[in-house]
Structures are given as C-alpha cells and as structure tokens.
Amino acid sequence: QQQVKQSPQSLIVQKGGISIINCAYENTAFDYFPWYQQFPGKGPALLIAIRPDVSEKKEGRFTISFNKSAKQFSLHIMDSQPGDSATYFCAASNPRGKLIFGQGTELSVKP
Amino acid sequence: GAGVSQSPSNKVTEKGKDVELRCDPISGHTALYWYRQSLGQGLEFLIYFQGNSAPDKSGLPSDRFSAERTGGSVSTLTIQRTQQEDSAVYLCASRVGGANYGYTFGSGTRLTVV
Fold this sequence. Notes:
Chain A is an all-beta fold. Chain A is built from no helices and eleven strands. Chain A has strands at residues 4-7, 10-14, 19-25, 33-38, 45-50, 56-59, 62-67, 72-77, 86-93, 99-101, 105-110.
C-alpha cells in the first residue's frame, strides 16, 4: 500500500526556472511532511518540512505549499540552479513517528 | 557522534550467505529506523525502534530479515541466506524521542549479492 504518491518521476528545468514536485497522501493521521534531497552516494538530507496547520512555508528558494483538504503538498524551487540537481523525496509521518516516503523525483537543472 | 554512522559502506556477498549491517545513531536519539533503497527507487520502510517499546517490524520483507538494537543505541540489521533481490542500499536514520521530526540519515550500506 503506497501511502504517499509523488510526481513527476523525473524533471528537467532550465537554470533560473521554477521546479515543482507534487505529492499526495492518503492517511489523515499524518501530521509532519518533510522534503528530503539526496545526492548520489549520500543519504537523504532534510530540506524543508511543514505541519498541516499552515498552508505555506518558505526557506530561501524552497517553498512548501500544503492543501489539507485535498491531501496534497508540493515543493517549489525558485531560481533553480545546476547544484540543485538531485533526487527529491517527499515524506509523511504520523504522531507515532513512522516516516513513509514517496517514490522520488530526479531533478536535472540545465545550465 | 556528530551524525548517523553506518558500516560497512559497501558489502559484496555471495548468494546464500548471511550479512550484518551496522548503524550507530546520533547520541541521545532514542528512535532508529531502517530503510531499503533499490536502484532508482524510493525508500522502503523496514523496521522502527522507539526506546524500550516493541519495534515496528511491519516493513520487513521476509523472515530472512531481522534487526536488533542493543542498549538503546547501536542497531544491527541481519539478512540471512541472501538473495540477489536483496541487493540495495540500506539506510539507517535516527531522531530524538517524543517528536516526529528531525530524522537524520546515514550514508547507507550498499549491499551487492552476487
């Protein structure tokens, strides 16, 4: 049972463009929604996270938009840079702390 | 330590052999997780330890997989009678207890079964 669905699977964006990755979840008990960035050969690193009591959170060029009624959340990367090229994972956790991941999006930012 | 440490970083084993993968969590982190990442795939939850509670083993794919956590710190993931489909990167994460945030991952162990 896939509880977090992520799209697209891969994304190519020009330098300076906006990268948008979407996720949808099923379990309304989830109350913590992080995004992770992973470079080849490395473990995932926390990028930004949100709780369902807010609709948007921004940290630098990274923004999470959250739609509780639709059970969807998305990551926006503004002014995308080649150094942002990586695999991005959305995830969701319930209060007991079990963290479930989406399938990942491979982002390539072209110079 | 400063981060989550996993060893070995790479392991090549013959089909049918047993392997042990080790995870040293961040000091003071009472929650510890194991995930499996197959080539080009997402992170598949395997098992979760929280303090002295019974572990959540709901993600273990078969009875060949087991994990233990000694003294609330170091954890070992054991795969018995390895199969080629077990080839993957095994990732460990830890976080402080009592909060479902602040998960920190190690760099993983890349297991290749030949």
